[in-house]
Design goal:
By secondary structure, the chain is of the alpha/beta class. The protein has 2 domains: about 5-130, Rossmann fold; about 205-370, Galactose-binding domain-like (Jelly Rolls, Sandwich), CATH 2.60.120. About 25% of the residues lie in helices and about 25% in strands. The chain has 7 helices and 16 strands. The strands form 4 sheets. Strands 2-1-3-4-5 form a 5-stranded parallel β-sheet. A 5-stranded antiparallel β-sheet has the order 7-9-14-11-12, with no helix packed on it. Strand 11 and strand 12 form a beta hairpin.
Length: about 375
């Protein structure tokens, strides 16, 4: 992986390319091009490159200071003491990054001897040469630090002497854990009616039809594979294989939420997407589902749905605002949201907040269940 990670907004791609070329000419390996290889997941590739980088160069511009994606990458670099910020527009960095001195490249046109660019190069070189660890100043080689993690063991102890006891202890723990899991599973396997009764108690009898309320998935809730046949006459209207089309969106990443793959999450932030149905026809729908694969602060929390008939950019009527639960439902990971039946030609979803309360929202597979008119 590359030593230097350049974080920038897509509008600043050309300036990022110039900085990348200059740093590469000085012998640094640079990751900056966000073109993702076929078969790879976009955010996973970026996370791998960011984690492997010894230096994170963040380009602050009029666009990037509003980008949650860039601010997230900058936060990672600052937390690991790997951040080297640079101003490419005359704007102040976001508040949380103003304590870190930034190179002023607002008047830089690519010359290698520019004093501010030279300062950036010096900072990059210092971080790259200091890697791989922050403990390079230690006089002891890295392997000698391992025994220090076991301060209670005397220096003359013989690990082989204690081996059998450790093995027996681990076996005992595994057996106890297995018993606990078995006992925990039995009520769920033998008492599904109790589980559903508890859900009705928590959500109330009107949740299945009231807009704006979260309906907990039950064993009959449709999933990614069985959505078209879960209820007679209904299917996932926004799935490409059923003729659904994404007609407008705040970013191309929204295409990942309807690609049929449960492991392709994407950053949508506070954004929106508009979908049309097969052959431009109208459809009647009453259920929306969203995959929540695990508990994470970046998962979608609040979102709103609306429908329209005047085109992808025309007027939309609200369906309701909804909130997810930040937990994976084991039997059915698609959380279900029901509302009164709506007939329309277009469907819009807008994400509002994540579970951390910020606008850096990550979304996964989504479905709109209904039938074509």
């Amino acid at each position: 992986m590359a030593d230097v990670f350049i974080s920038y907004a897509s509008a600043d791609r050309e300036r990022a390319r110039v900085i990348s070329e200059r740093l590469s000419s000085l012998g640094h390996s640079v990751w900056w091009d966000r073109t993702i290889p076929p078969g790879r997941i976009f955010d996973e590739v970026i996370q791998e490159a960011l984690a492997a980088a010894k230096c994170v160069v963040v380009l602050w511009s009029e666009t990037s200071v509003r980008s949650n994606w860039v601010k997230t990458e900058a936060s990672d670099g600052m937390a690991r003491h790997r951040l080297v910020p640079a101003l490419i527009d005359n704007v102040p960095p976001p508040m949380e990054f103003r304590r870190v001195q930034a190179a002023n490249l607002t008047n830089w046109s690519g010359e290698p001897d520019h004093p501010e660019f030279a300062g950036l190069v010096q900072a990059v070189g210092r971080l790259v040469s200091a890697a791989p660890t922050d403990t390079a100043k230690s006089d002891h080689p890295a392997p000698s630090r391992a025994p220090a993690t076991l301060p209670s063991a005397p220096a003359s102890s013989t690990p082989a002497r204690w081996g059998p006891r450790w093995v027996l202890g681990v076996i005992a723990l595994v057996l106890v854990a297995g018993a606990v899991i078995y006992l925990a599973q039995r009520p769920r396997e033998q008492g599904s009616q109790v589980t559903q009764a508890e859900q009705r108690r928590d959500t109330g009898p009107s949740d299945a039809t009231s807009p704006g309320r979260t309906q907990l998935p039950t064993t009959s809730s449709p999933g990614a594979a069985d959505a078209p046949r879960s209820v007679a006459g209904r299917m996932n209207l926004i799935a490409p294989e059923n003729g659904g089309q994404m007609l407008a969106a705040s970013s191309e990443g929204w295409a990942y939420v309807v690609d049929g793959k449960e492991d392709t999450g994407t950053w949508v932030d506070t954004g929106m997407a508009v979908f049309g149905f097969k052959d431009g026809r109208a459809a009647t729908f009453d259920t929306f589902t969203m995959l929540i694969p695990d508990s994470a602060g970046t998962n979608v929390r609040d979102f709103e749905l609306s429908s329209g008939n005047e085109g992808p950019t025309g007027r939309f009527e609200p369906i309701g605002k909804f909130s997810t639960q930040n937990v994976r439902m084991i039997k059915q990971p698609f959380q279900e949201f029901r509302f009164s039946p709506v007939t329309a030609k277009y469907f819009k979803i807008r994400t509002l907040k994540n579970h951390d309360g910020s606008e850096a929202v990550r979304a996964f597979e989504m479905q709109l269940l209904g039938k074509l008119d």
